[in-house]
Amino acid sequence: MKHGRTAKIALAVAFLMFGVGFASVPLYRMFCQATGFGGTTMRGSESELAAIAAGGRAGTGRQLSIRFDSNIAQGMPWEFKPEQRIETVRVGQKQMAIFIARNLSDKPVTGRATFNVTPDQSGAYFAKIQCFCFTEQTLQPGQEVRMPVLYYIDPKILDDQDNKDVQEITLSYTFYPVEKDGNQG
Q1: Model confidence at 49: pLDDT above 80
Q2: Would you tell me which CATH number, out of the four given (1.10.10.60, 3.30.360.10, 3.40.50.1220, 2.60.370.10), belongs to the domain 39-184?
Q3: Which DSSP symbol is given to 48?
Q4: Res. 161: pLDDT tops 90
Q5: H or E segment at 50?
Q6: Stated pTM of the model
Q7: In contact, 98 and 84? CB cutoff 8 Å
């Protein structure tokens, strides 16, 4: 009787550990998006931006430099760069940055961008409304596309002691190839 109960408990613990292991990646991603941990940006919306404006905190007068960084993973046959490397923006106002990607190969290539913000503590206040990083991008041979990022810096950054000396924030993207059915593209 004791052995059966012990076996059931061990089996339950094993299933629980499997479930925690399986869910850890999406849970970690949700945690990072909710807190800005590790430079993860926040997902913003037009309605949140409108609420900032209605509260009188948009365009507070404080300006920050935003630096845009672009990278491609080894083996990714793309050229990828920001249209403008640095912008000066007002905290609380909607901004748009453009990135340009070009497929240098002779076949369709699908990529997905990962991103981060530095300094890390600023990620919680860098809100992206629209971004190419939310979806896979497929470029045909030789195709060049302009990809917008709509974003704003949440005025709450002004109340955060860890960000009081921040003058520049870097938004960095890296494009990786996405394999589909064992083939590129």
Answers
A1: no
A2: 2.60.370.10
A3: H
A4: yes
A5: helix 46-54
A6: 0.70
A7: yes
